[in-house]
């Protein structure tokens, strides 16, 4: 067994929407010693005001709080709220704020969504905190997921985020080191969890490699929610080989996206998928934002990682690989419901598209790939 794998854990699946917000508030309320909270997008709106007030309340109760947002994804976070947080002893920081003098780092973004409470609970997933994600225009929330983990995996999360916080709060190093070594309570449950990250500038490609291994070793089935899905050649080859050896490969796309160029660009490969016996489903209720995979009804991969160049080479990402019957059942139930509510794409119907439609997909594929590549240019590999 890999040294990255922990076995005494409890894992819970949380769906986006009111259940997600309620769970975040519950976790913050439970804090007694410290909260480490970092996210790509956190918008100050009706979905987040209660969270801000809870953080302030806990800080006034003596809880040490470190609150970090990505300098690009959360660039519109109000300065008056930052001041309010700091006036209430909450340690606020932007990760890599967008500045002219630091253009060589502008492409490297904090895309992780992690909340760590007292070294006892951790939320890891793909869900940002914003009305646009949680309850857009009073419609159904975006399809997204997070996981709550307790147990030995917390030690690995503490270790993996330590460098991030030490670098962004250099004046608080001794306190951070102490708080990120808090003892972790044992859990009387067996669930295998591996905490994996991608940060290419630090030669970390654990999520990418884990996905490749899972697909290569799959024997029965693969389900992937295909969010911002522009896979590289190696992943395409592994999916093709899996389907050729009889594995049922299912990719779940959305009809809608907050970045339409990605949506149109991802359709460029639809004909290739279908000709290689890879099933395509299109979900048309809301935006699919979840980063979720289920392999052989026995392994779940969940977190912030998307299958595209940005997640591979530019962003800081964190996922969990989970092997646990109860957790797998909850994920399988979600995926089955998505498939029921989705349209399966048929090859013959897809091939009758107009020439202009095919050209549009090709053009947006090139455009999306160029945008990804441009972001990668603005990082310095260490």
Keywords:
single chain, 382 residues, alpha+beta, Endonuclease, Chain A, ten-stranded mixed β-sheet, seven-stranded mixed β-sheet, globular
Question: Topology of this structure?
Answer:
Elements: E1 5-6, E2 9-15, H1 18-30, E3 34-39, H2 49-60, E4 64-70, H3 79-87, E5 91-95, E6 114-117, E7 121-125, H4 131-134, E8 145-151, H5 153-168, H6 173-179, E9 192-199, E10 204-205, H7 206-217, E11 221-225, H8 233-244, E12 248-254, H9 260-266, H10 270-275, E13 278-283, E14 292-295, E15 299-303, H11 309-313, E16 317-323, H12 325-340, E17 342-344, H13 347-351, H14 355-377
Notes on the structure:
By secondary structure, the protein is of the alpha+beta class. It folds into two domains: 7-190, Endonuclease, Chain A (2-Layer Sandwich); 201-377, Endonuclease Chain A (Endonuclease, Chain A). It contains 14 helices and 17 strands. The chain has helices at 18-30, 49-60, 79-87, 131-134, 153-168, 173-179, 206-217, 233-244, 260-266, 270-275, 309-313, 325-340, 347-351, 355-377; strands spanning 5-6, 9-15, 34-39, 64-70, 91-95, 114-117, 121-125, 145-151, 192-199, 204-205, 221-225, 248-254, 278-283, 292-295, 299-303, 317-323, 342-344. The strands form two sheets. Strands 1, 9, 10, 11, 12, 13, 14, 15, 16 and 17 form a ten-stranded mixed sheet that branches. A hairpin with a 4-residue loop joins strand 9 (192-199) and strand 10 (204-205). The two termini are 30 Å apart. The mean pLDDT is 92.
